[in-house]
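Whether sequence alone determines local backbone shape is best considered at the level of individual chains. For completeness, the protein is quoted in full, as a sequence line and a line of structure tokens:
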Amino acid sequence: MTTDIQNYSNLWADFKKNYSLTHVQLAAFKTYAQLLLEWNQKINLTAILTIPGIIEYHFNDSLQITKHTDFSKITTIADVGTGAGFPAIPLKIMYPHLSMVLIEVLEKRRIFLQEVVDQLHLTNIEINSLDWRTFLRKTTYTIDVFIARASLAPEQLIVLFKPDCLYKSALLIYWASQEWQPLAKEEKLITQDIEYNLDNKKRRYIFFQSKA
């Protein structure tokens, strides 16, 4: 497994250069990739089982948002339906100052996430087991940005902007396909719609925020 990871030195070098990563950060990404491959033999984490695929479809897809948002000015992020940790953990590796809440209802995935947190020595990161609507009703975190990639649909996510929700002033960033079209109630909350490329395919970052 370790040998397989080291076989792609050029890909790792390009990834490091593209995001101006330190040697320590790159080592963290390699450890993360190794854990993902090892744990995927025990539990279903991802259908992507190659190092090039993990770098492109998980790490790169998580970090391209940094080209459009200055995360150095953000304090706290919550990842809705984080699954195997994307995009939150790549962002945490790149921006260690971020405090994070990883929202994941499946216990097996939470166990994996805790292993990643422990192995990478990540701090100020909490794994929360509540479902989305319960999280909104019963928690009192201070969260600047919610992120969601391959989890809930925007129609479900935008309930955070209800007038009685504690988090109604936060920013929501949604990873969308090129074909995604907003419903009317979603469209009125969109502040930015940014196109980006992933393996020569067009994708979009959709920014939602209350305009009230």
Q: What stands out?
A: Residues 2-208 form a domain with the Rossmann fold fold (CATH 3.40.50.150).
